Amino acid sequence: MKLTSFQQEMLDGKHGYATQKSMEILNALGEIFDAEEMIPVTSVQIAGVSYANLGEPGLEWLAQMAQDGRVRVITTLNPAGMDLENWRELGIDPEFAKNQERVVDAFAKMGIITTCTCTPYLVGNLPHFGEHIAWAESSAVCFANSVIGARTNREGGPSALAAALTGYTPRHGYHLDRNRQAHVGFDVQSPVTGTAQFGVLGKVIGDILDSKTEWTIPYITGIPTANTDELKSFCASIATFGGTALFHMEGLTPNKTTIPKEIITVTESKLKEAEDDLNEEGASIDFVSIGCPHASLREIQYIAKLVDGKQVKKETWITTARPTKQVADRMGYTQIIEAAGIKFACDTCCVVAPIRGRFTGLCTDSAKGCYYGRGRNKFQTKHCSLEDCIEEALTK
Amino acid sequence: MTKQFEGRKISPGTASGEALVTSQSLSFYGGVDPETGVVVEKDHELEGQSITGKVLIFPSGKGSTVGSYVLYQLAKTGKGPVAIINQQTETIVAVGCIIAEIPAVDRIPINEITTGQQLRIDAAKGLVEII
What we know:
CATH architecture of the largest domain in chain A: 2-Layer Sandwich
Radius of gyration of chain A: 21 Å
Largest sheet of chain A: 5 strands, parallel
CATH topology of chain B: Glucose Oxidase, domain 1
Shape of chain B: globular
Structural class of chain B: alpha/beta
Largest interface: A-B, 20 and 23 residues
Number of strands of chain A: 14
CATH class of the largest domain in chain A: Alpha Beta
Order of helices and strands of chain A: HHEEHEHEHHEEHEHEEHEHEHHEEHEH
Number of helices of chain A: 14
Distance between the termini of chain B: 7 Å
Shape of chain A: globular
Number of strands of chain B: 8
CATH architecture of chain B: 3-Layer(bba) Sandwich
Number of domains of chain B: 1
Oligomer: heterodimer
Helix content of chain B: 10-25%
Strand order of the largest sheet of chain A: 12-11-10-13-14
Strand order of the largest sheet of chain B: 1-8-7-3-4-5-6-2
Helix content of chain A: 40-55%
Strand content of chain B: 25-35%
CATH class of chain B: Alpha Beta
CATH superfamily of chain B: Phosphohistidine domain
Structural class of chain A: alpha/beta
């Protein structure tokens, strides 16, 4: 690693403790991954916010970094373990709430914008094509690299924080053109529409990529159109099942790539198989959750239309970013949705909230939500379209 | 007679202590009890053994990135290893050692070291010595 004199000063401790620790982390990672130099980053997204994951040691480290660490670029935060305002109504333990607040306070002290969302690109942390950034949160990493065409590795909590506090990241991996070329093609031969089906497609491709170490970046054809909500669902799913940080979708994504010779066809039966895998037969559903990744304004607007004047019969949550909900408040969508008995959970999501044991079966349009619902929370799962999720919620 | 290996610095610092070697990769999150320093991963070669005060030697880390914070907690409470030696260090262990200030070196032929041997480590220079 060649450091500039400014970066060397950071490493030598001339810019404070937190900056020094951060540069130590980045320098070591640069050495491990054979980077030659640091590059400036212009945006950071930090994950590892839920107290359930951090625990006391994680919090202690953050508090130590917050003593003199201040971010140098726009930095936003992943979901926390609870709605920071409405946690009591959502049944969160007061002891957990106190600790979660300490975590968020430590981040805020460092100048991090406490958006608490996995969709920073929907609420003001939106890089442009070609920008070098350091993002954690696998679904957002995949969206930033693939849909936007910015450049980031899959950062962990500490390495993303280190990038924020120094303004640099080691130049390796997805920052380099040579590591952004597709390895294998996927031709989708069955129509795919809606967030749920795009999640299923992400699982089909992700599972195949996960089984072949020489393939990490897919080149996908046969998708004529997709909206941002469908792409965010696809990103979350392919990142969950395939560990994928970058894909190319012909006609839809902006990155240049060589086109692979080997092509795998994605048939209707492969999609059906993956769909069946997400659906447990006879799952007993008592919890419906929309918003993994966080629900967009368009999704909330649509849900308001679907439930206007009706009443849900099951516990139903919409997880979203607070800024998104504030616009929904203004437009009256919140009122319609809450009148139907649905609860909003801002700042958090069903992957990181401590809800294990509270429900038996989860119904969601998110393939990622099903994966973590099973793994972390031991829920039975039902995976279906947004419309069918609402129908499930309205049925006793 | 001493035998010396030269590897790569991951986290600076000097230490000496007794080697605890495993040929299996190790996850700190879920694999090591953060309060006692005992390996709790089921069916792991080191299951039931304490890493406290040892020079802990394993091929590479695995598992959740939260593992970095477990190393930090172990070090803060005096339950951590005095040093870590890997074949190939990955991000979780590298970050954990740096924030916990545990000396760490990789690119060492770890199969040439056996449990119980006394080691001296100068991580800044990447040096590991059997004494």
